[in-house]
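Hey,
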Amino acid sequence: MTVNHHPDIATLMAFSAGTLDHPYATVIATHLAMSEGGRETMRHINTIGGALLTAEPGGDLAPDALDRLLNSLEDDESEVVSQPLLNSDLPIPLQRFLPDGLDSVRWKWTGPGVATADLAWSAAGSRLMLLRVAAGRRVPEHGHGGQELTLILKGAYRDRFGIFAAGDIADHDEDVEHQPIAEPGEDCICLVAVDARLTFRGRLMRLLQPLFGM
């Protein structure tokens, strides 16, 4: 699999440090499971982070420090840094949400040619969801109220930033506006993490937005 679009380095550093909210960490972990180049970059970041920690002066640990560390490792998304896909149509980090694969997804109509399916919400309010855009259809032009990570699982779309295919990830903030258009031939299915509603340019879409839930 050739992956051409990767997360911003700041996003990868936050993932390495464990400071990303869970929906965002899940998207990054899934991208890393699909991208050998991404895993290699992550290994370099982890090595640099480890060296920086080693250079820090020592300090006293809390009595429960070891227990808290072991508990955090049980749900550590970074385990995929050294692992490829399993024998499944889904990367390792998504299998906990969709044990029966993509065919089991219950899609919710969100607009002409567009459907979504919620997977998880975090306590901080960020959302992990699937987005499906029918082949050849376009998503209305929009911006982002906060950070949006979009990972292509199947199919492809194009926008002003290029063509995004399986394994590619779009890392956008509130300054970005775009209009993704699914490539012909196959529906485009994406894994998306957001922390705010989209901001549509069209007046009609803004009026209908409460019905769409995006």
